[in-house]
Automatic annotation (TrEMBL):
CDD domains: crotonase-like. Belongs to the enoyl-CoA hydratase/isomerase family. It comes from the Bacteria. PANTHER family: ENOYL-COA HYDRATASE, MITOCHONDRIAL, ENOYL-COA HYDRATASE-RELATED. GO terms for molecular function: lyase activity. Keywords: Lyase. It comes from Aureispira anguillae. Gene3D superfamilies: 2-enoyl-CoA Hydratase, Chain A, domain 1. GO terms for biological process: fatty acid beta-oxidation. Transmembrane segments: none annotated. The lineage of its organism: Bacteria, Pseudomonadati, Bacteroidota, Saprospiria, Saprospirales. This is Enoyl-CoA hydratase-related protein.
């Protein structure tokens, strides 16, 4: 399995996938998303004996710091729809994957990065992990399922607060609120994820696949919310505030929003 932006290792039925753009804090650019689609929709489906996947980010600082803001330039409403829908499709492929996928989060999991971690079945955080949905800083809303999945994990009030303040929460708070399943010392998150996958690998494989499918079915009624997110994300892409928010990030200054 060869990818531009992913590294993979495969041992004892466990695939470890590392998003490998550490200089950009593993931001999800188009290539990385296409690599993830190739992996979860094709390559990993054909892996003989696969029992679990660990998804992590390269480097010391980040799991994934979000969608790649350098690719936002020139995005129009149609581009926003396409971008959000593409991410939704890939993240649903992860959420519906037939073997467990565990996010090993060793640093920033922001925006699309938090959304990616939430599409995984379980999250193991290191004590340096930070989670957040900072899209409103850019004049945006989340577009990869964050408005829906964050509610599923932490509830409406906490989700609304995080989505509107753009605050980050640390690993301990993520654990207390149900976003992280475990917190381990920094550097031990992949090992802990593998330990969990090895335990699950001893169980009946078909029962595990059906468990994932059936738990997912509980949330099917919320698909209208996912559709709304794609539409509303595309609306935010049309605004002057979005142009200002993205420009301010790239120019390393504070955004000044006008509400238009
Ligand atoms: C592109 C990014 C990036 C991103 C960081 N970088 N996040 N590049 N897209 N999302 C780059 C920086 O520009 C910088 O590049 C390098 O990574 C290191 O980042 P710094 O900012 O210098 O590091 P630090 O000061 O430690 O701050 C870390 C940080 C900050 C707090 C994580 O980088 C940050 O706020 N990033 C943006 C987070 C964010 O807004 N994410 C949501 C994106 S929108 P250089 O070249 O200067 O070294 C989103 C929507 C998804 O995800 C839905 C779409 C449909």
């Amino acid at each position: 399995m060869e990818y531009k932006n992913l590294l993979t290792t495969y041992k004892d039925g466990i695939l470890v996938v590392t998003i490998n753009r550490p200089k950009a804090l593993n931001a999800l650019n188009k290539q990385t998303l296409s690599d993830l689609r190739q992996l979860f929709e094709k390559d990993a489906l054909n892996l003989e004996g696969l029992r679990g996947v660990v998804l992590t980010g390269a480097g010391e600082k980040a799991f994934v710091a979000g969608a790649d803001i350098t690719e936002f330039n020139g995005l129009d409403a149609q581009g926003g729809l396409d971008m959000a829908q593409n991410g939704h499709d890939i993240f649903f492929s992860i959420e519906r994957f037939h073997v467990p996928v565990i996010a090993a989060v060793g640093g920033y999991a922001l925006g699309g990065g938090c959304e990616l971690a939430m599409a995984c079945h379980i999250r193991v955080a290191s004590d340096k992990a930070l989670f957040g949905q900072p899209e409103v800083n850019l004049g945006l809303i989340p577009g990869y399922g964050g408005t829906q999945r964050l509610i599923q994990y932490i509830g409406k009030g906490r989700a609304l607060e995080l989505l509107m303040t753009a605050d980050m929460i640390d690993a301990q708070k993520a654990l207390d609120w149900g976003l992280a399943n475990h917190v381990v010392p920094h550097g031990e998150e992949i090992e802990k994820a593998i330990e969990i996958l090895k335990k699950i690998a001893k169980k009946a494989p078909l029962a595990i696949s059906k468990t994932i499918a059936t738990v997912n079915a509980y949330f099917d009624k919320e698909h209208d919310g996912f559709k709304q997110e794609v539409l509303q994300f595309a609306q935010t892409v049309k605004t002057e505030d979005f142009k200002e928010g993205a420009a301010a990030f790239l120019e390393k200054r504070k955004a000044v929003f006008q509400g238009k």
